[in-house]
């Protein structure tokens, strides 16, 4: 193992560098520091929150639930990327609900036309 301060070789198990006196990090401290920095880097405002992801996914399959989750996600301050995904989920949900209403209306008209012509 080598000292991070001066680059001198250090015996394993040493607490301080014999050349410069800098404290030597143990493997456990390095692992903890790496985990802590990874956690801090991956929990910032640029990462998507679970609520936003669920809102986006459900907006395709259950538009009403997706819309509700997107509104809740948009009302929280999860960062700009989450806001964009929440707005996209709201647009998709509203669009699919409107499309569903149009399809039902057209089917109703089609059934009424068939009924009036004696087709049913």
Task: Give an overview of the whole structure.
This protein is mainly alpha-helical. The chain folds into 2 domains: 1-43, no CATH class; 50-116. 64% of the residues lie in helices and 0% in strands. The protein contains 4 helices and no strands. The radius of gyration is 29 Å and the shape is rod-shaped.
Number of strands: 0
Q: How would you state the average pLDDT, rounded?
A: 80
> Distance between termini?
86 Å
The helical percent reads: 55-70%
Q: Output the structural class.
A: mainly alpha
Task: Determine the number of helices (DSSP H or I, runs of at least 4 residues).
Answer: 4
Number of domains: 2
Topology order in helix (H) and strand (E) letters:
HHHH
Radius of gyration of CA atoms, rounded to a whole number: 29 Å
Low-confidence stretches: 31-35
Q: What fraction of residues sit in β-strands? A: under 5%
Shape: rod-shaped
């Amino acid at each position: 193992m080598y000292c991070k301060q001066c680059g001198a070789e250090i015996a394993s198990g040493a607490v301080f560098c014999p050349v410069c006196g800098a404290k030597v990090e143990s493997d456990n401290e390095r692992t903890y520091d790496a985990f802590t920095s990874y956690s801090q880097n991956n929990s910032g405002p640029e990462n998507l929150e679970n609520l936003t992801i669920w809102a986006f996914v459900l907006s395709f399959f259950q538009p009403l639930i997706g819309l509700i989750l997107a509104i809740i996600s948009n009302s929280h301050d999860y960062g700009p990327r989450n806001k964009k995904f929440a707005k996209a989920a709201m647009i998709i949900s509203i669009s699919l609900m409107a499309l569903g209403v149009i399809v039902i209306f057209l089917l109703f008209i089609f059934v009424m036309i068939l009924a009036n012509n004696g087709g049913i």
